[in-house]
Design brief:
binds zinc ion; single chain; 3-stranded antiparallel beta sheet
Length: 232
């Protein structure tokens, strides 16, 4: 009997509590409020980002709101046919004041993750020893119709669905340049900031692979959507 009463009380709390939570939880902790690219990292943000993978309209809406806020510039790109089709890819041109070595194709969820990544990276660079935000991000692309590690057999790379982005370096507004291939280990301030920028990848993306992972990543960060915070 006691157990039944307890159960009834718990159901009651759930029944009345859920609408209260929906209305009163702050947006970044509230799974019922759509994702914003300015949401802080955490499991609720990760959950919302994962949900976008199966909801293209909601995903595009997140990107449009980010563009209206001046945080990213993108356009909808034509679909890609062939062995590695892309249904509704986006072409990302810049992230607010942060320029790119070239525009890149992204699946919508990857475009959202990369916008969040650059926003947070900008803040990290600003708070670093260099006290300077980002001016430019150098990269070697996102979409490539191939298997993992260019193998002839095996599963398709995240790049085959434009779900990953390979970043090779950063230029700060004060003209300091950080290259993954040259500065991963030295000098110390550059190396430290690069390590922070790599680790930041795991908060926005499913995985972030850097030079310590293997020789194939000696010169770039691979930032991809598979996984849930896999940092190597
Ligand atoms: Zn890659």
């Amino acid at each position: 009997m006691r157990a039944l009463i307890l159960l009834a009380v718990l159901v009651g709390i759930g029944w009345w509590g859920l609408p209260w939570l929906k209305q009163n939880l702050p947006a970044q902790y509230n799974p019922f409020i759509p994702l914003s690219v300015t949401d802080p990292p955490g499991w609720v943000t990760r959950y919302k980002l994962e949900r976008l993978q199966s909801d293209p309209a909601a995903c595009l809406d997140v990107m449009r709101r980010a563009q209206q806020a001046g945080l990213v510039t993108f356009r909808e790109a034509p679909a890609m046919q062939g062995a590695c089709p892309l249904v509704r890819p986006l072409r990302v041109q810049r992230f607010g004041d942060v320029a790119l070595s070239s525009s890149f194709l992204a699946s919508c969820p990857m475009a959202v993750a990369s916008t969040m990544y650059v926003l947070r990276s900008n803040a990290i660079a600003q708070q670093s020893e260099f006290h300077s935000p980002l001016r430019r991000i150098n990269h070697v692309g996102s979409y490539a119709c191939r298997n993992i590690y260019h193998r002839s057999q095996g599963r398709l790379s995240e790049h085959a669905s434009a779900d990953a982005w390979d970043v090779t370096g950063f230029q700060l507004r004060n003209s300091v340049r950080l290259e993954v291939g040259k500065n991963w280990r030295e000098p110390a301030p550059a190396s430290q900031l690069l390590h922070s920028l790599w680790r930041n990848g795991c908060d926005s993306f499913g995985n972030a692979l850097g030079p310590d992972y293997n020789a194939a990543h000696a010169t770039h960060f691979h930032l991809g959507m598979r996984g849930a915070g896999y940092c190597r």
